[in-house]
Design brief:
By secondary structure, the protein is an alpha+beta fold. The longest helix has 18 residues, at 57-74. The protein has helices at residues 6-13, 27-38, 57-74, 82-90, 117-134, 144-147, 152-160; strands at 50-54, 104-111, 138-142, 167-176. Helix content is 40%, strand content 14%. The structure holds flavin mononucleotide.
């Protein structure tokens, strides 16, 4: 029988949100989420990550256009993960929006060649997701920018947002108020093992 407390409830209740309201989160909420990100553990205490939060609608729209054209015109998905093909196909839709029209979008990047780059950034974003849940906000892990991190037009634009050229784009997160809740997907059995 699992124990229960506020943090454990936050962990259990967090869901990936894919429909956000237009209402922007407050500066205090954004600061809180970013502070949660940088309190994550990092390999050898590297803290070499960068969390870039975007709230400017024109910037987000431009990024969406570049991601859409990147998928449609330049991206060749590998067979290693079905989500890649799905992402490319989804971009064919005129109303495509890879970040689900979230009013706040956070990009986690890290130094290229650093072995813990994705691990550190993912831990930072999980802190963001849990902090968002605790503040009554929705969140979703977004992988599209990671897949397009070597797409020249996307990369050039990210550089104008001060994301260093020598960084890898590890992951990103959509954040905002929840317009439609997601059902909890059942957790698969047999994925934990206890050896006593
Ligand atoms: C590495 C990773 C990549 C993901 N990429 C996406 C994504 O690009 N778009 C999306 O809508 N959800 C994405 N998700 C969210 C998962 O689909 C989601 O966590 C899973 O379906 C379980 O649902 P839950 O988060 O509500 O528990 C990603 C999650 C992880 C951990």
């Amino acid at each position: 029988m699992a124990l229960d407390n506020e943090i454990l409830r936050t962990i259990r209740n967090r869901r990936s949100t894919r429909k956000f309201s237009n209402k922007q989160i407050t500066p205090e909420q954004l600061d809180t989420l970013l502070e949660a990100a940088i309190w994550a553990p990092s390999g050898s205490n590297s803290q070499s990550w960068k969390f870039t939060a975007i709230q400017n609608p024109e910037v987000l729209q431009k990024l969406n256009e570049l991601v859409r054209s990147g998928f449609l015109e330049r991206y060749e998905p590998d067979d290693d993960y079905p989500g890649k093909k799905f992402a490319k196909n989804a971009a064919a839709n005129e109303s495509y929006n890879f970040y689900y029209h979230a009013p706040t979008f956070i990009i986690a990047s890290n130094v290229g060649g650093y072995a813990n780059a994705i691990a550190d950034c993912a831990l930072g974003l999980e802190n963001v997701f849990l902090a968002a849940e605790s503040l009554g906000l929705g969140s979703c892990y977004i992988n599209q920018l990671h897949w397009l991190e070597n797409d020249a037009p996307v990369r050039e634009y990210l550089e104008t947002l001060d994301i260093p050229r020598d960084h890898v784009i590890c992951a990103s997160a959509s954040i905002g108020y929840i317009a439609a809740t997601s059902n909890a997907l059942e957790r698969k059995p047999g994925t934990v093992n206890i050896i006593r």
